[in-house]
Amino acid sequence: MRRFLIAAATVGVSLVIALAGFELLLRILGFSAPLWHRPDAELGWRLRPGLAAWYTREGRAFVRVNAAGSRDDRQYARAKPEGVYRIAVLGDSYSEAMQVERSQTYWALLAQRLSACGWRPARSVEVLNFGVSGYGTAQELIALETAALGYRPDLVLLQFTNGNDVQNNSRALEDEKGRPFFVMREGALRLDDSFAASPDFERRTSPLLAALRKAADYSRVVQLVREARPSRLLARAHAGTGAAGVEQGMEPYVLAPPRTAQWEEAWRITEALIERTRALAERSGARFLLASVPYAIQVHPKRALREALQAELGVPDLFYPDRRLERFAAREGIRAVALAPEMQRLAERTGAYFHGFPQTGMGRGHWNAEGHQVAAELIARRLCSDFR
To answer: What is the pLDDT of residue 9?
Structure first.
């Protein structure tokens, strides 16, 4: 018995030493994959307040989540100080922007660009970021109502992603059902938040998974085990498939007019959500701007790749979502800026890649620092001309 106990203790000590060594190796190699989000009964998920870690999946940046649960190094008082003009940014992963440092994000650069054009000269500008990866317009509307309006913004900037927001807003088309949806009933939007009562959501909120999220904050080994799950490995393998320049999770069908009743319904819901977001902002005393973010292939510098997808879709260009949103905005009296056309012209003229990173591939995925910079300049240009 004594020998058995000694052998077991030896194995245990060896295992602890091996795990400690592996943990150290992962840190030396720079591996980092914390669980950035936690489940939320209103929004589906949200960022975990107070988390600070390296983001390395695409690009590389040290990311902090403030106490309010926003991707921002800074904490803002809910009571707006005198002499401050506040902009609340609603959006998805393009606004969460974990791929770049805070100082390189379009919303951090926006205040500087606005100052350069003499915008609101008597007031300092604060840009508060409420963007969360994976959000659709429905979640952004709820985030405005439950969080952003509490900071009394003077302007609400709704960042819309051409590549997946329409799909995110449709219960029929969206794969991730663990989120609130709005549905059209008798010509009006109705909230469907039944996800919060689903078994899958209950599993996500279990004490076991809460403990796993906390353990991952301290252990790179735990992070690696989670990343190595078959579902995640399959998703990464799938990322390289599909039409040239079309990344995983971004279906190219949105770049053509709707060809099914489901896609047309998704567009109708999306437009109604944008209008409701605008109306809520204006009722609360804020102005409103819609900024549509290009799908990576729309602004790829290589014309041949764009034209190959155009031929596959049977369209003359890749600007259907931008034109549709511009027509909708004009009809509803909404100020809007479509970034894709100008970014495509710049990319083709200069050969610049506004999306992508060396380790994951250029011309796909999210904005790099240059993409954020150009986006800040285009948004500031529109604000400086329309909101003086």
So the answer is: 59
CA-wise closest residue to 136 among 105, 171, 186: 171
Task: Please give the share of the chain, as a percent, with pLDDT higher than 90.
Answer: 70
- pTM for this one? 0.89
Angstrom CA distances, 39 to 104, 137, 138, 213, stand at 28, 18, 16, 11
- Identify the sign of the CA torsion 336, 338, 343, 346: negative
Contact 264, 285 (CB under 8 A): no
Structure tokens at 4: 């058995």
Beta pairing partners, 62: 54
For tokens 């970021």, what's the residue? 129
234 pLDDT more than 80: no
Q: How far apart are CA 357 and CA 269, in angstroms?
A: 33
With 50 as the cut, is the pLDDT of residue 360 above it?
A: yes
147 with 130: CB under 8 angstroms?
yes
Residue type, 113: R
Spatial separation of the C-alpha atoms in residues 48 and 23, rounded to whole Å: 23
Sign of the torsion formed by the C-alpha atoms of 187, 159, 293 and 167 = negative
